[in-house]
Amino acid sequence: MATLKGVQLFHDTDGNVAQLHGIGVQRFGERWYAYGEIKNDGNLFQGVACYSTTDFAQWRHEGTVLPVGEEGEIFGPTRIIERPKVLRRPSDGRYVMYLHVDGEDNYSYAHIGTAIADSPTGPFEFLSTFQFRGYESRDIGVFQDEDGTGYILSEDRPHGTHIYRLSEDYLSVVEDVACLKGTDYWAGYESPIMVKRDGVYYWFGSQLTGWDCNDNMYATASDLHGPWSDWQPFTPAGSRTFDSQCDIIVPLDGADQWHATRFLYIGDRWNPKDLGNSQLVTLPIEIGEGKALLEWHDEWDNRL
């Protein structure tokens, strides 16, 4: 069994700080694979790192699985590229990475990027970027349903936050399934996450305050098309989600991700002055019967 702290820096087996900012996590086989932004030298793109674990306490560095491109390329060193997320494509078992790809030192481009690999540890080949129907795409998340259908969650500030259904090859969008606005203001939510338990979809997101923390929210539905419930907080009011921004919620048990009863919340606690050492909030989150609740623990046993 592994003990996690409520807030911490993950370290790899060589003792180095794991570069898992904007983290995405999936279980492939007997290990969880985590993908993150390398932030050792500011906010511009430095590649995507991969680490694997069996307990979220010991991390094996699998390397830089998507390296920086050349100057002037869409994934070059002057771009902002964030929130790497990976799905395994059912049609052939290959691994597709999705990224928020933005401009040269600014947020004017707002596209979804794709890359592909034969292994969860890469190397990933960068493919392309796109927008669905011209909608902006900033923070993203991914979700795979029980029938193998893949979805991208995409924050589109002028309109809201979308659920996009992916094509069979997972490389394009074929349907705008739903688009939700915020409860109290004109736009949606960033850093979107989705999990499913007992036939209920739980959609999590952060209010639009950038690296400044806020009370993150969630909504629920029994069908991805809706109707969706009102957004509501899943942490105590004023806690600012324990000074974090939601990144990923990881199913920890069960035969697969759709039959889990225990979940791990991971959120970024951004440090703009030292992004490479930004901590992660790692807490158990209760999800079930249409409710979600995140409470603080200095330390806790994840039973892995």
UniProtKB/TrEMBL annotation:
Highest rank taxon of the organism: Bacteria
Residues in coiled coil: none
Pfam families: Glyco_hydro_43
MF-aspect GO terms: hydrolase activity, hydrolyzing O-glycosyl compounds
InterPro entries: Glyco_hydro_43, Glyco_hydro_beta-prop_sf
SUPFAM superfamilies: Arabinanase/levansucrase/invertase (SSF75005)
Keyword Phosphoprotein attributed: no
UniProt keyword list: Glycosidase, Hydrolase
GO annotation, biological process: carbohydrate metabolic process
Family (UniProt): Belongs to the glycosyl hydrolase 43 family.
Record-given protein name: Family 43 glycoside hydrolase
Species per Swiss-Prot/TrEMBL record: Bifidobacterium callitrichos
High-level lineage: Bacteria, Bacillati, Actinomycetota, Actinomycetes, Bifidobacteriales
